[in-house]
Design brief:
Largest sheet: 7 strands, mixed
Structural class: mainly beta
CATH topology of the largest domain: SH3 type barrels
Shape: elongated
CATH class of the largest domain: Mainly Beta
Strand content: 35-45%
Amino acid sequence: MGLHTGAQLAKTKGPIIDPANLKVVAYEVDGPLLDQRPSFVRIADIREFSNIGFIIDSSDEMIGVDDVILIQKLHKLNFKLIGLNVIDEAKRKLGKVSGYNLNTSTFAIEQINVDRGIIKSLGDHELLIHRSQITEINDSAIVVKAAAKKLQVAEKSEKLEYLNPFRSVTPQLDQQESNPPTELA
């Protein structure tokens, strides 16, 4: 969404993640109003985000692949976190990345969700692995510390929506509460 026009400028296609530090540096966007393909919105250019989307100043904030060297390198690298194998230091397969939790103030990936597969999921549904447990990220897998301590098993949780305190809607009052108090003489 553009702050100046209030209109939708584009839709996000996916994040551009730096595998060196597991931070989202930009989002690839697509839309009919874009001059360059592929186009990106840098995290630094996002003014606000909520359940309605990202808000930037204007379409001038969108950049092409050759405008920022880091984004050009990461786009060519084509790193996809979802679906990447997860193994421990002993080369035992733990599963595949099915999602991640993002720190919304730094856009750093704090935890990865690991789908255990059919057989292993009979006991444990999903693993949550904190970024501090990751020892290496390569082209084929994420390597995590061997399970000296048991990895945390995740329960299926509901997705929480980000609530922007500046855009919250005032709740409706009950009929009893909406009657003004009577003055005492």
